[in-house]
Amino acid sequence: MSTTHRPAADSVPVMAGRAPGRAGNRVFTGLSFGSGILIMAVLALVTAFLISRSLPALTASGEDLADVSFMKERSLWAYVAPLVFGTLLSSVLALGAAVPLSIAVALFISHFAPRRLAQGLGYLVDLLAAIPSVVFGLWGFLWLVPLLSPFYTWLTDHLGFIPLFADYQAPAKNILTASLVLSVMILPIITATIREVFLATPTLHEEASLALGATRYEMIRQAVLPFGRSGIVSASMLGLGRALGETMAVLMILSSGLSINLHLLQAGQHQTIAANIAGQFREAYGLSVNVLIATGLVLFLITFAVNSAARWFIARRSEFSGAN
């Protein structure tokens, strides 16, 4: 019986030729570099557009600005300041309500819920992000506003000595209601991001904490939360970015005003930049268009500053992210 001998691996001749994948690497590098340049070019073009179309409003005299009806004889910065305040106030309130709830939901999905329940709940949270903002506006106007009105009345009756809760009058079309709707809108974005960060926590860190006698809560506090701190900040900034630029839901719910105060329950006190642009742009012409674009430039700068601050914070925390 003959035995077939296979040649040894060392005796197999090596054919000379080009290294595999070199052309693909060049194509991939070129596409990546081009994509980065394209993003920077688009950002530069948007910035140039906003600045060029805002210059007429920034350089206009007081007499010219007085002809813009919706400014009500205010200077440009006196008109922009309440809008900036309303934008930041609504976004901060929305973030304050959404972030703790997002962390709790993300922890439940990643570390407490059974696998099937966690998968189903994760899908439901992700589906919330697909709901259009106008639907959230209708939900807030038709369901949330009547629901919150008795609660706001109770706050005014019992805590009205605090300016935050003073002088409520129905309906509840105020900055607090708009912020609660915004918190629901940004909840799926923040939750999905934090959930993935928590799931990426090294198993060895969790097991080491449990092996030292830590309870489930102590393990989360010692291993999961420190690891996900930068991810929580990143997710919060993503949600803040949407809250700053949200238009339709705020426009449908909030009774607008141009005041700088902390009367959260009073209607007709606040307005956001994005909702103001959407509400005024249909009837704007001439210099009034430039004024609205100037407010858009201010919103662009605010968003840029917020994201820069977030990147700075994340960079400072990257030396100890929990994975190092």
UniProtKB/TrEMBL annotation:
GO terms for molecular function: phosphate transmembrane transporter activity. It comes from the Bacteria. Its main location: membrane. CDD domains: TM_PBP2 (cd06261). It is found in: Cell membrane. The chain crosses the membrane at residues 27-51, 76-109, 121-145, 175-194, 285-306. Keywords: Cell membrane, Membrane, Phosphate transport, Transmembrane, Transmembrane helix, Transport. It holds the Pfam family BPD_transp_1. InterPro entries: MetI-like (IPR000515), MetI-like_sf (IPR035906), Phosphate_PstC (IPR011864), Phosphate_Transport_Permease (IPR051124). Residues 84-310 form the ABC transmembrane type-1 domain. GO terms for biological process: phosphate ion transport. GO terms for cellular component: plasma membrane. It is a multi-pass membrane protein. Belongs to the binding-protein-dependent transport system permease family. CysTW subfamily. Part of the binding-protein-dependent transport system for phosphate; probably responsible for the translocation of the substrate across the membrane. This is Phosphate transport system permease protein.
